[in-house]
Design a protein that fits this description.
The structure is a single chain. This protein is an alpha/beta fold. The protein folds into three domains: about 50 residues, no CATH class; about 110 residues, Immunoglobulin-like; about 220 residues, Aminopeptidase. Helix content is about 35%, strand content about 25%. It contains eleven helices and 16 strands. The strands form three sheets. It has a six-stranded mixed beta sheet with strand order 12-11-13-16-14-15, with helices on both faces.
Amino acid sequence: MDIYAEQQRHRRGNALVCRAGLSRSRRRRWTIRTCRLIAAVLALLPGFAGAQPPADWRELGVIQDIRNWSFDDYTRVVVYTDRKISYAVRELPADPKNGKPPRIYLDFEHARLAPELRKELAINDGLLRRARIAQFDRDTARLVLDVQRIARYHVVPFSGPPRIVIDVYGSDRKVQVPGPVVRKAPPTGEDPVGALLGGGGSSVPVAKTAPPKARKKVIVIDAGHGGKDPGAIGYKGVYEKNIVLAVANRVAEQLRRRGHRVIQTRDKDVFLTLEERTVIANRERADLFVSIHANSARNPAAHGIETYHLARATDKRSREVAARENASGGGDSDMDALEELLGALRLSNKLNVSSTVARFVQNNLKLLLAPRYRDTYRDLGVKGAPFYVLVGTDMAAILVELGFVTHPKESKLLQTSRYRDYLATGIVKGIEEYLKKLPKVPI
């Protein structure tokens, strides 16, 4: 028997009995007196000592919050927990007789709900109707997603903070990201046939119309880590979060001066989860997402600059870098889930374009820094790895590792204003090289 549930049931039942059949004046007096008496009696009964949950209830993992975001092609639901919690995913078909839609549900094992948790989210975005959660039994919490339309879905666990991310897709179409194009020379307004025949051009005047204004490209600059998350802690205690914020602010300022529309995920020392960063980019319908980070290594001699695009890890170190930036705490399960997700998603166009952007940025950083910092500069090249912050974006996305905060000389350079200016300029030049090759979209 579930003693705790029975006890709560008795408490609810007794409260009702206490209120039944009494006038307002007597009800106030007798409710307290009677309930105290019943509580005292229950405390003497076996299995009803006190009104607290059983001791093991406090040992269960706690589901703290549920949030959702809606986009054109998918809906994201994130379940935040206080620790890593095991779960099982199942599906239920529609039940027309009882008016129930198709459902996806997750059973969280050895878990309970936080008292302040919202039990239901109304979504109604064409993909999901709602998300609802309840205590299924003594140590199992169940999340149910009521489906409106679905083609596929993915569930991936993460830590830092612990959470389970559920992405529900409404179509199987591939993610299309505009790639560089070769433009034809614009027409001059002359009559090519008349010119060939020596006729001096057309006798019909041609009105010259101004070309439509191109929509400003939207670039999201993401300074990694922040707030309670310092990122890598380097030589003499320098924090990665401070270095990357300083460079990201410079990149944003330079791009704005060049007339681009720039969105920053953070421009001060605040904490954002990885999914919150990609949500910003997707909602702004950005053309490019650039996440800026700094590297670290156990070997203090390791140094150099590298730029990543989304892909399966190209080598062991790339996998380690991605694991650290994903805040997975060394958990291989997170990385395995991400690489499995990469295999399932249809992202070939996005991956190819992102790889091109990464090469532009890395090459421009090299052109600026190699001749000026010959003693410390090292080109680590362009690599692929399953960074979660890049998985969730709908646009071309790259991650730049500015250098190693654990390398004494490189760490000192990363803290100088001049070096940060060069880093920002190299990134901006690479971004502009990519943007110039994109087709211009009229407003």
